[in-house]
Design a protein that fits this description.
Two copies of one chain form a homodimer. The first copy, chain A, is α+β, with helices and mostly antiparallel strands. Chain A folds into two domains: 35-179, 60s Ribosomal Protein L30, Chain: A (2-Layer Sandwich), CATH 3.30.1330; 186-351, Alpha-Beta Complex (Phosphoribosyl-aminoimidazole Synthetase, Chain A, domain 2). The first copy, chain A, is built from eight helices and 14 strands. Chain A has helices at residues 42-56, 97-111, 131-148, 203-213, 229-235, 251-263, 278-287, 309-318; strands spanning 68-70, 76-85, 91-92, 95-96, 115-126, 151-160, 168-179, 194-197, 241-245, 266-270, 301-304, 326-332, 340-343, 349-351. The longest helix of chain A is centred in the middle third of the chain and has 18 residues, at 131-148. The first copy, chain A, is globular. The first copy, chain A, starts with 41 loop residues before the first helix and ends in a 13-residue tail after the last strand. At the A-B interface, β1, β2, α2, β5 and β6 of A face β1, β2, α2, β5 and β6 of B.
Chain lengths: 364, 364
Amino acid sequence: MAACGDPGVAVDYDAPLQDTEPDRKTPMQDTHISLAHGNGGRYMRELIDELFARHLANPLLDTRVDAARIELDADRDVFVTTDGFTVKPLEFPGGDIGSLAVHGTVNDLSVAGAVPRYLTLNAYIEEGLEVALLDRLVASLARAARECGVAVVAGDTKVVARGEGGGLYLATTGIGVRRRGIELGMDRVRAGDAVLVSGPVGDHGTAVMLAREQFGLRGDLVSDSGPVLDIAQALLGVEGLRFMRDPTRGGLASVTNELVHATGLSVRLREADVPVRDPVRSVCEMLGYDPYYLACEGRLVAVVAAAAAGDALARMSAAPGGAEAALIGGVEAPQSHARVVLETTLGGERVLEELEDDPLPRIC
Amino acid sequence: MAACGDPGVAVDYDAPLQDTEPDRKTPMQDTHISLAHGNGGRYMRELIDELFARHLANPLLDTRVDAARIELDADRDVFVTTDGFTVKPLEFPGGDIGSLAVHGTVNDLSVAGAVPRYLTLNAYIEEGLEVALLDRLVASLARAARECGVAVVAGDTKVVARGEGGGLYLATTGIGVRRRGIELGMDRVRAGDAVLVSGPVGDHGTAVMLAREQFGLRGDLVSDSGPVLDIAQALLGVEGLRFMRDPTRGGLASVTNELVHATGLSVRLREADVPVRDPVRSVCEMLGYDPYYLACEGRLVAVVAAAAAGDALARMSAAPGGAEAALIGGVEAPQSHARVVLETTLGGERVLEELEDDPLPRIC
């Protein structure tokens, strides 16, 4: 890919552009990654050429140049974001680190109201990683990028010594465009505004936790990893849209606490209205986790003017991935302290505190 | 910083913009990084706010948003590049991983003929890293960015478990602009062209190797880590400029081998003309390394039409950092095989093969 490797890497890669998935099997002869795959020479060239470039082929990806030229609409605002991915296990029900690295960055642009256009990719590969696994993960990343309409235009790979990595760490930087005149931000949130979420919370966090901890629990639990672009674009039509965010690390509780920090206002959520899947609820009860603190990777939280709540909910529900959208609470003037309050189904209240230490607090 | 953390992080960071260095001491109370600094809650907010944002303050860096809006000239071509950094030790004579992460990406844009404008930053911090060290590294990164005229507009931090990282890994993605009409690339290289380098090779590789291996060797050896932007911009005025590259991983030998791969032409270098500092040469002789394969981090290799060699050398020599620039060889039609040939000072020839395996080949 463009600028792959410090020195760039000389590859004779000139494959026809493809929108379909390439052959699954890498022509690389090595079965495991060695430090030589990171030294700038022939092995690294093979890794880039026969694995990364094979999956990521697109018109702008040229592994022989230092920097990729990209096209941006002259009449649009340009946005950039970046995110690192260290999830374990590398593959989990409903996704893997490859698709996640696309969805995470696509979603950060989406909630800014932008349409993602380009990605850059960094890979830190631990010596000893199985090449077949790496191949699946990069294939998955490429598939997710195609589905989201983004092109990976530059990349870099580093091989780190055994015991100095986590198998594979990825980072993606995204560039997107937004039509001019859109204003979104936490500073636009007012007391009285409504809070909505695009679907059930805690799926990703629970699915990964189970896959990692091997509790022996099985079921229908899959990550919600996916793009929120369609939902975000649908919401841009709402008069009174204040702010959107994807509740990833730290979950719904952290996004709403951020809102409290930034605005000095309180957020009130209704437990009965926040969608949580039954298996997620069961696992949380069994293991002592709170689903409101668990990461989602395909959900969007929106704050809109009260009068626009109905319109927003209708648009979210009609968008792909938004069928289970819900109006879950509102923003209000703080009583003594600004905070996030959950009205429980039993009629009580509990405060969703800002996350302090791992492990996640047992309240659920 | 913008989009810092999956969920973004709510920080009340609103410090005045500063072009000068902030206080050296972080107000963070913790002395070492723990996993809690990566969980999206209060500790992570402190890390971002009191360490990263403190050093990286600039008008576009807002830690409360998902994606940063950037301004690009409508009449310029836009370039993007990315690079990962895993150097050890994290600090070495002449630089550190922070400044290196800026120079590496700035230089990849520079050799494409672009002026770097924006950076995004990913940090993978290993649990247990000393906060004071992290603070120095981020301060150094911020200083290098200021010196290069680039703004860090988005960032993300991940904390990885002890034994699953290398202290600190960084990735930077750079966005730059180039005036329209400039065409550069290995495909423009022709037999007869001249090859130049902007200064001595092997300084960075040798300095880091000595710092890492603790051979007990000391001396004047410092990394050449630095920007090549001025030199690259000066070369854009040369009629007949074909191609520029910074010889990082794999060094001068790898860049020229890349050229051979891409063009089918041979490259002939004259050992007597390739600048290598005496201490670098001594260390290489002692330890069995070849300076032509060692990374530079502040050098530029240029290929120009033969008739333009004098002009190119004059411009390089006059630019900051280019005082030791040299005309080191040329491109020629291959005899039997296209390859990189070094004319030795003794009148012999040796082939600089493409790097295969670590450790570096003993030839020097």
